[in-house]
Amino acid sequence: MQKPALDWIRLRWERESRYYEAHLQQDLWGDWIVTKVWGQRSSRLGRVMNIPCNTYQKGLAMLVQIDRTRKQKGYRLVLKKGNIDL
User: Fold this and answer.
1) Helix, strand, coil percentages in the chain from 3-state DSSP, rounded to 5
2) Which residues contact residue 41 at a Cβ distance below 8 angstroms, ignoring those fewer than 6 apart?
3) Please, are residues 25 and 63 in contact by the beta-carbon 8 Å criterion?
4) Left, alpha or beta for 5 (phi > 0: left; psi -120 to 50: alpha)?
5) How many beta carbons lie within 10 A of that of residue 11, not counting itself?
6) pTM for this one?
7) Reduced to 3 states, what is the DSSP secondary structure of residue 6?
8) What are 23-63's pLDDT values in tens digits?
9) CB 19 within 8 A of CB 13
10) Distance in angstroms (rounded) separating the CA atoms of residues 51 and 21
């Protein structure tokens, strides 16, 4: 059974000319996926990586770790959609 889209999470960090996003969402089969997107803010080019998660809680833990890493690298959180404590 899929969780409602309200449980999905979207985070975005930025620094000078770079951005980094992470999303926790379900695919069509109900499996949880963390999607990471990054690139230059002034370019339409970038990279995308999808990482499957066994559970919603493991996805949340992955987002917390991503947040910690981004902040250590000088990024600041500019968008937070969804229910997550960082």
Assistant:
1) 25, 45, 30
2) 14, 17, 18, 19
3) no
4) alpha
5) 21
6) 0.86
7) helix
8) 999 989 889 999 999 999 988 889 999 999 999 999 999 99
9) yes
10) 13
Give the count of alpha carbons within 13 A of 27, CB side only: 12
Query: How many angstroms separate the first and last alpha carbons of the chain?
Result: 27
Give the type of residue at 29.
W
Bridge partner residues of 10 (DSSP): 23, 81
Q: Mind listing the domains of the chain with CATH numbers? A: 6-79 (2.20.140)
Q: Would you say how long the chain is, in residues? A: 86
Residue tagged 């997107």 (tokens): 37
Which residues lie closer than 8 Å to 75 by C-beta, 6 or more apart?
13, 14, 15, 18, 20
